[in-house]
């Protein structure tokens, strides 16, 4: 059901410093920051050739990333994102097998402008999973 790994998301306390590390130390192509108010984050994507790294920074005090950074002040891996062909079919199959869909269960538009959903980390060995329609 899942396709390729789209990205690994990393919550960071200093977005510009993290972007510099990937760009200057590792030589990666790094996007400009993009605010996503509906998700409470600012994102930067790092191109890795076969996938991406999404750097996440809180946008506002109610950001889920702000809460993550309170528990993990140095930052850390926040979620893995996998591509699916049909997000509604994937949601229905996952829910039918007992996986918990976060939020209201309806896809939202993600950073790539495509429908996304998040799956409860307790159902996936403690890892928050994002699925994105490819």
Describe the protein's architecture and organization.
The mean pLDDT is 96. The chain has three helices and nine strands. With 134 residues, it is α+β, with helices and mostly antiparallel strands. Strands 1, 2, 3, 4, 5, 6, 7, 8 and 9 form a nine-stranded mixed sheet that branches. It has one domain: 2,3-Dihydroxybiphenyl 1,2-Dioxygenase, domain 1 (Roll). 28% of the residues are buried.
Report the strand count. Answer: 9
How many domains, in number, for the residues?
Answer: 1
**Major pleated sheet:** 9 strands, mixed
Q: Give the amount of beta strand, in percent.
A: 35-45%
Output the CATH homologous superfamily: 2,3-Dihydroxybiphenyl 1,2-Dioxygenase, domain 1
Our measurement of the CA-to-CA distance between the termini, rounded to an integer number of angstroms, reads: 12 Å
CATH level 3 topology:
2,3-Dihydroxybiphenyl 1,2-Dioxygenase, domain 1
| Weakly predicted, low-confidence segments | none
């Amino acid at each position: 059901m899942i396709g390729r790994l789209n990205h690994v998301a990393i919550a960071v306390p200093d977005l510009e410093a993290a972007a510099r590390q990937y760009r200057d130390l590792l030589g990666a192509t790094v996007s400009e920051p993009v605010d996503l108010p509906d998700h409470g984050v600012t994102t930067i994507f790092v191109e890795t050739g076969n996938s991406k790294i999404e750097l996440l920074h809180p946008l506002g005090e109610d950001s889920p990333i702000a809460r993550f950074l309170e528990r993990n002040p140095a930052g850390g891996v926040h979620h893995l994102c996998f591509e699916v062909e049909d997000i509604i079919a994937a949601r229905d199959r996952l829910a039918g097998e007992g996986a918990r869909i976060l939020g209201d269960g309806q896809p939202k538009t993600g950073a790539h402008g495509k429908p996304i959903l998040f799956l409860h980390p307790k159902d996936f060995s403690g890892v928050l999973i994002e699925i994105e329609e490819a």
